[in-house]
Design brief:
By secondary structure, the chain is an alpha+beta fold. It has 3 helices and 11 strands, in the order H-H-H-E-E-E-E-E-E-E-E-E-E-E. Strands 3, 4, 5, 6, 7, 8, 9, 10 and 11 form a 9-stranded antiparallel sheet that branches. Strands 1-2 form a two-stranded antiparallel sheet.
């Protein structure tokens, strides 16, 4: 009679636990959708932030170019002012030279006029009019000196004219060149300022979009935390029911009834098997790193185990457990999570396998240590064929090398 009562009690406990599994399945489905949404938002946010970083670098470069153009304009304006002063000084000099030229021209004109008036007097008459030999010599020297002076005067006038034209042309060319350089620099500065204004407007749009995505992500994270809390509550209830079932089973055993197979116990820390047999190298360790796709510093929540670019390599369950998730997401690609129960300290241990080419098991399936759960691949945000493997304790990631060997 006692055996029958205990058997009925055990059956009742097992039946009572069935709705809990259905409830957690629904919640996990909601959690999966939430995490997929978070992945999508994170991808958009990462892309948006990457665009902002690129744009910021471009704006900084534009600022540098604008500053350079402004410095060039300042230098050109300084040279223009200096050239203008040189031009003004030369204009004064040229005006003085022109006045001297005019004065000398008037002297020459007067001399030519006098010579014309006495053109009937020949040089012989001038010579024979000399009253003495010394007077003769003086008259000859005077005629020679006047002739040489006239020649020098013409040459000097021509040189002054040439110098005036040359200096004026040089200054005007220099000034025009500087004005042209100034206009070119000002046009460049205007173009750069226009581009910068466009980039700043785009930056404002990206910032607004980033704020929107971050707000959306916070809402999704809050929803995810709520769902996870609900799942933990249900798992706690399930653990209590399991404890009751074991107590009932133990009571039945104590009365001499047939014993049922005990549920599998999790392996102790450090005793789980390696997730990719025959491939022991690690291409990326647990901890902070530069993301191979995004190029930004982030925390790597697991280890990456490459297969040497080989396909057809299986990832295996590191211990006995129940598959609680088998889905595809934008970041992890195809991934599977196996709940391996609790360790000796009462902590829940789960293993995550990501970037799988194929998933061999679905949610709710029981797996044994060494059983293939999927093919190693490169789905999701990945740069090559490898397994991203995580160990989670009570839902939080930890260094897998403390648990697998």
């Amino acid at each position: 009679m006692k055996k029958k009562v205990l058997s009925l009690l055990l059956a009742g406990l097992m039946l009572f636990s069935l709705p809990v599994y259905a409830s957690t399945s629904d919640l996990k489905g909601n959690l999966e959708k939430n995490e997929e949404s978070q992945d999508e938002v994170k991808e958009k946010l990462d892309a948006n932030n990457a665009s902002m970083e690129e744009l910021k670098a471009e704006i900084d470069k534009l600022d540098s170019q604008i500053k350079k153009a402004e410095n060039e304009i300042a230098d050109i304006e300084s040279n223009i002012n200096k050239t203008q002063k040189e031009l003004e000084a030369i204009v004064v000099e040229l005006e003085k030279a022109i006045a001297e030229k005019e004065e000398q021209k008037e002297t020459l004109d007067e001399r030519l006029r006098v010579m014309y008036m006495y053109s009937d007097t020949s040089p012989l008459e001038i010579l024979f009019s000399a009253q003495s030999f010394s007077d003769l010599i003086s008259k000859v020297d005077m005629i020679k000196t006047i002739a040489e002076y006239d020649q020098d005067l013409f040459a000097k006038l021509e040189a002054i004219e040439s110098e005036i034209a040359k200096k004026k042309e040089e200054i005007e060319v220099k000034k025009n060149n500087l004005l042209g350089m100034k206009k070119k620099a000002e046009d460049q500065r205007g173009s750069l300022n226009t581009i910068k204004a466009e980039r700043n407007n785009y930056m404002s749009e990206l910032q607004a979009n980033a704020n929107k995505l971050e707000s959306e992500l916070r809402e999704l994270e809050a929803e995810s935390n709520s769902i996870e809390a609900e799942i933990k509550a249900i798992l706690a209830q399930r653990a209590a029911e399991e404890a009751a079932r074991r107590a009932a089973q133990q009571a039945q055993n104590n009365t001499g009834g047939e014993s049922a197979q005990p549920s599998s116990q999790p392996t102790t820390n450090g005793a789980y098997r390696w997730p990719v047999p025959g491939n022991s190298s690690i291409s990326s360790s647990y901890g902070s790193r530069i993301h191979p796709v995004l190029g930004t510093r982030s925390f790597h929540t697991g280890i990456d185990i490459p297969t040497g670019r080989r396909t057809g390599v299986n990832a295996v369950a590191v211990g006995d457990g129940v598959v609680i998730k088998s889905v595809h997401s934008g970041s992890y690609g195809n991934y599977v999570i196996v709940d391996m129960g609790t360790d000796k300290n009462g902590n829940n241990i789960s293993a995550l396998y990501a970037h799988l080419a194929q998933r061999y098991v679905g949610a709710g399936a029981r797996v044994s240590a060494g059983q293939a759960i999927g093919e190693v691949g490169t789905t999701g945000r990945s740069t090559g064929i490898h397994l991203h493997f995580e160990i989670r304790v009570n839902g939080s990631h930890t260094n897998p090398l403390n648990y697998v060997r």
